[in-house]
Specification:
heterodimer; A: mainly alpha; B: 69% helix
Chain lengths: 73, 360
């Protein structure tokens, strides 16, 4: 629980650090892209902090290259 | 429109390339598993094989002056297909940064701080990289000059201090290498340390004299390759065939330095080398990812993206590998094919540009 709390605090800090300047300068396009990646990063970190097993991308690469393309030493 | 206001000189580009290649000094230690005592041979052949590809990258950059890889893709492949190609490049940069960060975490956890969780090390390291990226390319280029000097100094001093432990018979038998192992070793050496400098296609627009970029990239590649060669020769000469079973041959060989029981435990020097070389490598990859995303979405500034992408890279580094052996296994078997796909595609881009007679 402590980890999730600390994580939330960190992400709120990141948001407070970046968003006011973007809103003040009316950089709406930047704000949209920032929000998409911010939410993605937060969800990834939250899932890891709450011990959800996320499949490793390396497994996917190994399956794709080793089993489908048969390119492996 | 320029995303980055900073400008670097061509000599700074040389040091940046050298530092980037030196970032793999410790990572390529696992090639010993494949080529045993002949690793020095595959370092040389990998360097020779990567120079034509690097010349292609420079030719591509000279054909489209002032444009980075994402803009070149857009010109060559058109507005829709280019989005897909660029997105896969960005995924490649991001994942390599994650894997390298994971390697730093594993080595520090294995050799220095066994009780510390890996994610703490990764977060602290990534924070420094994020700080460097936020400050722009000039800061990174200026620090790389000092860092490359330190790395060369560390490699030379450990080489000299280990001279009395070296046995040249460890290199025998010469050329006792099957063709398959030779090709595999050359492939690993070509893709992992040398041809990854494809990322500099994202940075070459910020060099003040684009024409001289060719000389500095090749020189930087040779400086980095020389460092890797010196490191490999030292490890094989000191450790011999035992280096094939070690997680990090560099640390294990430098551990043996013992000068009248006063100068001992110098593996800290190697860890310093790992940290500063990896700093350059991870930061350049991170920077390439950020600039790529900002370019793909036509943003006016890349700075807001630094922290979210950094967080994604840290998550990626934590969930990709649990143990050092997984990292090694991936690096020996799959990673050469994964990276060659992206490192070879600028050749296709250049060919398509030649056929379509671009730029008009």
């Amino acid at each position: 629980m402590t980890v999730i709390f600390l994580l939330t605090i960190t992400f709120i800090a990141i948001g407070l650090f970046e968003v006011p300047a973007l809103v003040k300068n009316k950089h709406w396009r930047e704000l949209t892209v920032f929000s998409v990646f911010f939410v993605l990063a937060f969800v990834l970190a939250l899932l890891q902090a709450s011990d959800v097993k996320i499949p490793s991308p390396v497994r996917g690469l190994e399956y794709f290259f080793g089993e489908i393309l048969k390119l492996s030493y | 429109m320029r995303l980055e206001r900073g400008i670097i000189s061509s000599s700074q580009l040389m040091f940046l390339v050298a530092g980037y290649v030196q970032g793999s000094v410790m990572v390529v230690g696992y090639t010993n598993m494949v080529t045993k005592q002949n690793t020095w041979l595959v370092v040389l052949s990998g360097l020779a094989a990567s120079i034509p590809l690097v010349l292609v990258y420079v030719a591509l950059a000279n054909k489209f002056p002032g444009k980075d890889l994402i803009q070149i893709n857009r010109i060559v492949y058109g507005p829709y297909l280019s989005k897909l190609v660029s997105a896969s490049y960005i995924w490649f940069f991001c994942s390599i940064a994650g894997f390298m960060l994971s390697y730093v975490g594993q080595i520090i956890k294995n050799y220095l701080m066994p009780e510390t969780p890996k994610f703490i090390i990764c977060i602290v390291f990534a924070f420094i990289c994020a700080w460097a990226v936020r400050n722009g390319i000039e800061v990174l280029a200026r620090t790389s000059v000092i860092f490359v000097m330190i790395i060369i100094f560390v490699i030379l001093i450990t080489f000299v201090l280990l001279l009395k432990d070296m046995e040249l018979t460890n290199f025998l038998p010469f050329f006792d290498l099957s063709l398959k192992d030779f090709i595999q070793g050359t492939h690993i050496m070509m893709t992992l340390p040398f041809c990854q400098i494809m990322i500099f296609l994202m940075l070459i627009p910020y060099v003040n004299k684009g024409v001289e970029a060719k000389k500095s990239v090749i020189l930087g590649l040779i400086i980095g390759g020389g460092s890797i060669l010196a490191d490999t020769v030292r490890n094989t000469a000191v450790l011999g065939i035992t280096s094939t079973i070690m997680g990090s041959p560099s640390i294990e060989s430098v551990r043996l330095i013992d000068l009248a029981e006063i100068i001992t435990r110098l593996e800290m020097l190697v860890i310093t080398l790992l940290l500063i070389a990896m700093f350059i490598k991870v930061t350049v990859m991170y920077y390439g990812t950020i600039i790529g995303i900002a370019r793909l979405f036509n943003l006016r500034s890349y700075r807001p993206l630094v922290l979210p992408i950094g967080s994604i890279i840290v998550s990626l580094s934590i969930l990709s590998f649990d143990y050092l052996n997984q990292n090694t296994d991936f690096g020996v078997k799959i990673a050469p094919f994964f990276t060659i796909m992206f490192e070879f595609s600028p050749v296709i881009t250049l060919l398509v540009a030649k056929i379509r007679k671009l730029p008009e």
